[in-house]
Amino acid sequence: MTTFKCKRCKETDATLKSRKELFCDACFIKFVSMKQRKLMMVDEFYRDHFKVLYGKDLVDDGKSKILVPFDFSSSSLSALDVLLGLLKEQNMQHRGRVGFTLELLTVFKSDEDRINIENMWKELRSSPLYDESAWGFVNYHMVNANNFFESAKELQHIVLHDQDFTTKAIEWRNESDGEYSIQTLLDRCPNRNTRNDMWIFIVKHIVKKFTYQQENIKVILWCQSMTKMADQIIGLVVKGRGAQIASSLDSENADAEYGDRFKNLYPLKNTLLSQLDAYCIIRGLDKYTLNYEVKSDLFLNATDTDTSDTKTKNIRLVKNMTINELARKYFDDIEGEYSNIISTVLRTGDKLKPPKIETSSTDNHHGSSKCAICLNTIYDDPAEWLRNIAVNRGHPVETEEEQSYYDQWKASKIGLQNEEYLTLRNHAWDNGNDIDLCYGCTINLNGIKTKELVWPKNDSEELQSVLAEYEL
Ligand SMILES: [Zn+2]
Ligand SMILES: [Zn+2]
Hints:
There is one protein chain. The protein is of the alpha/beta class. Helices cover 47% and strands 12% of the residues. The protein has two domains: 26-146 and 190-303 and 321-355, HUPs (Rossmann fold, 3-Layer(aba) Sandwich), CATH 3.40.50; 155-180 and 366-461, no CATH class. A six-stranded mixed sheet has the order 9-8-3-4-5-12, with helices on both faces. A four-stranded antiparallel sheet has the order 10-7-6-11. Strands 1-2 form a two-stranded antiparallel ribbon. Strand 1 (16-18) and strand 2 form a beta hairpin. The two termini are 50 Å apart. One zinc ion binds at residues 371, 373-374, 376, 437-438, 440-441.
């Protein structure tokens, strides 16, 4: 078998090939970690929160904390590995002093989830890969996703009008209206796509709310790879959430939706998912992944693991995939030879600016409002747009025959559901408040059979209601 030398050190035999370049294990680890470290030092703000500083340069009294949403994917494991490496380095060079500490946060959905996470975390903590001193700078937190509803001070029942697409909210009380949980919400979603869209928001909200409530956390370090960010960008476009792209990639400005308390950093945005997978395999971190399968495509001696069995499974599943999964599959498929498409999507997204808000309008209600569900700025009135493209009003009943058909329909299951919906709608329109939804959330709500959902009332009070942590 012919061997090739690593293109970086030109000494060791190459073990893998990424974006047409040959690497040995050691040079590849250095290459991937340097990309992350570079983005962690991208400007003065971030430099100050990661570097060891002395005297008057000290930021936050030397208690700079970095929040890392941690989901046991190859991305979060490799990001943590680089961070622990940096902490070890600082600790040695500055005799026990480091520039920052880490707060890791995992959001879980069920008890089964929690047990798996707990066990995996214990394994990682006792891994021979790290010595105990590195963990001295790391705190681990677990939050149950149900906190999203349970910790909310006030819940509201949001109802969409089936004809003119406007929305009203009425108060929801668990005591009289019934318990509302993450599972209730996800069960009511009409498809995996809406479910996925809601879930992404819920996790993001918990992470940001948790950060908002901690002292001295000015940075959330998100572990998304370039591949994942590209699929998010495409997903946002397809879901009619294109206006959110700019803010979803913004690492320069403080997060305005959460009181300007922190910035969002994406230090893996120049690294492909396949590169992070390879990083984990070389470092021996692949055994600590959860709900995630590491791929070994980049290795020169990689055997074809895509057996006919998994191939047929893939074909069968395409139909049921969410938009994000489809975009991911597309990027997965092209990652090898056409990985520059992925970086082009990301770079284009990164250059986008948020749409301009029309200030000429004297009507303050539109143009600058926030979506009551996903908190994003609403730039155009989606209700008006939807009214213009949809014909939603029924034809009035005129003959006896039509009346009998109508009565039959009313007695059917759909008819009864509709009856229930109309009662709720009338109640909301008599007693509720006007609220605004963005286009993406209006479409989600319209897809739910009953065109309603329960959601926390998002205001500064909601942000202060304490998230209960699960103690390990
Ligand atoms: Zn090398
Ligand atoms: Zn929305």
